Automatic annotation (TrEMBL):
Protein name, as recorded: Glycoside hydrolase family 43 protein
Gene source species: Marinoscillum luteum
Keywords, ordered alphabetically: Carbohydrate metabolism, Glycosidase, Hydrolase, Polysaccharide degradation, Signal, Xylan degradation
Top-rank taxon, per record: Bacteria
tRNA processing listed as a keyword: no
């Protein structure tokens, strides 16, 4: 009898733990690190519109800040002194001085908001997009060693193409005379027949190592099972970009899940690079997309005088939301 009761208690405890550890469904995710805490933000595509945040110490267990249980901790709310009424996608956080910046997409426009804290609402002084002259999405702000900022983003032209322009962070505007297209769709992996679409390259992240610029990007339609991530290398933030011959470095054939891509690089607990990204919900269903984290291994290539990158598919992290 005692054994039966003990077994029931174990089952109940296991069930409770399972209930208290829920998988995270954020697409286009980014992770920002401050001191010993990681902040996860992404596209959630459900009300309330805007962006919520989860925090973690170990990348595996994530909580809603402020002991709010399973409720959302919103850091940007639609209609709260910020542009847009729909389509809040692809956030990225940058800190300069005492100011935090959140750049994202809303109404298929790139938007820049500010806050004095990661835990306070991000808002705009003057509500509007960065460049309302045409549609542009999927923004990433890169700061170079000389203090100049560059806005990498997607513009539409019978497809999604990556562009870059020097960016005036203080005034929140691009320098239009510097607008430069990064590259065209040129590689077979960037356009597989599993889902027919116009050319699509999106979700940029840029880092600089030893005077080389590395542009990580995703290609194919997000509904394509072959949605994947690769990178290109250049000697200037404007290019010309040379695509890695080993692309893609993140693909269903590598990580074992469909639709793997559109994320962001960050430094993990061991000081090494990690990539946070999303995958399809299942083999036969795209949404809601699941969040994943994978270590990125960089190796110096002396012959090419640059780094080579690959993901460590044996160490993929499935982040879970934990109820405190």
């Amino acid at each position: 009898m005692k054994y039966i009761i003990y077994s029931i208690m174990l089952l109940a405890t296991s069930h409770l733990l399972a209930q208290n550890r829920q998988e995270i469904f954020l697409a286009d995710p980014t992770i920002y690190q401050e001191k010993d805490t990681y902040y996860l933000v992404g596209t959630k595509n459900r009300p309330p519109l805007g962006f919520s945040v989860l925090t973690s110490k170990d990348l595996k267990n994530w909580v809603v800040p402020g002991n709010q249980g399973d409720s959302l901790y919103m850091i940007l709310n639609q209609g709260d002194q910020t542009f847009g009424t729909k389509g809040f996608w692809a956030p990225q956080i940058l800190k300069e001085g005492a100011t935090y910046y959140l750049t994202h997409t809303a109404n298929e426009q790139t938007v820049l908001t500010k806050s004095h804290s990661l835990m306070e609402p991000f808002r705009q002084g003057e509500v509007g997009p960065i460049d309302g002259s045409e549609k542009n999405i999927d923004s990433y702000i890169f700061k170079d060693d000389d203090g100049k900022y560059y806005l990498y983003h997607v513009r539409f032209d019978h497809g999604n193409f990556l562009w870059v322009a020097e960016f005036d962070l203080k005034n929140g505007v691009i320098k239009p005379e510097t607008l430069t297209k990064c590259f065209d769709q040129t590689e077979p992996w960037e356009a597989t027949p599993n889902y027919e679409s116009d050319p699509i390259m999106e979700g940029p992240t840029v880092i600089k190592l030893k005077d080389k610029y590395y542009l990580f990007y995703s290609a194919n339609h997000f509904m394509n099972i072959d949605y994947a991530m690769g990178y290109a290398v250049a000697d200037s933030p404007y290019g010309p970009w040379i695509k890695n011959e080993g692309n893609p470095i993140l693909h269903r054939s590598i990580v074992g899940e469909n639709g793997s891509g559109h994320g962001d690089l960050f430094n993990g607990p061991d000081g090494e690079l990690y990539y946070v990204y999303h995958v399809h919900y299942s083999e036969h269903q795209v949404t809601p997309r699941r969040t994943r984290i994978v270590p990125v291994i960089k190796t110096w290539n002396g012959k090419m005088n640059r780094y080579d990158f690959k993901v460590d598919a044996d160490q993929i992290i499935v982040p879970k939301q934990v109820s405190e």
